[in-house]
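Chain A, query sequence.
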Amino acid sequence: MADFESDPSLLARCRSGDSGAWSELVERYRRLVWSVILKHRMREEAAEDAFQHVFTSLISGIDSIEDEGALASWLVTTTKRRCWRMIGQSRKEADRARSFDSDPANPTDPEDERDDPVEVRGQVEKQLVREALERLGGKCKDLLEALFACEGEPNYTVIAEKLGMRIGSIGPTRARCLQKMSVLLGRMGFGDGKQPAAEADSDEDDS
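Chain A, predicted structure.
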């Protein structure tokens, strides 16, 4: 399996001033943060601002993060709340005559939204799957991505040719890789129901 540095280790390097560690951390979680932002259908400029704000909040509050193993949850929660605030502010600026406070039952009011533990956990588990694939590395990573990232039924002939495998070996290899991934995900806390951390927002190859 490929070497994979843990979040606590990366955070420790970030705190020591290692710029390379910070780049690794952003690269690891950029897709997670963007996936949350895109769900809010914000304009491009606002989306970029939200992305920058989340990681600025992370670096400014990095010393106060208590549960370093729940960084993904922290990022999901922080991103959601930032998006709600930005959307709410934009609406108020567009129509100051309307007050969100006067209609607390309005389901589209971001200020009335609450963190949904199930939704947050879903986002975190997607991130855990991405991390598990990176940890597997090698042919397992390539095979599982080829099998499950495509739309519709996977074309075993194309996959076998692309990966230099025999078609008959794809099934058994997939089973072994999925077993390894299952073990990894279990160690990483996949499906343990862990609640997201509080926000700190200032405003092996197989053949």
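The domain at 7-187 is CATH 1.10.1740.10 (Rna Polymerase Sigma Factor; Chain: A). The first helix runs from residue 7 to 15.
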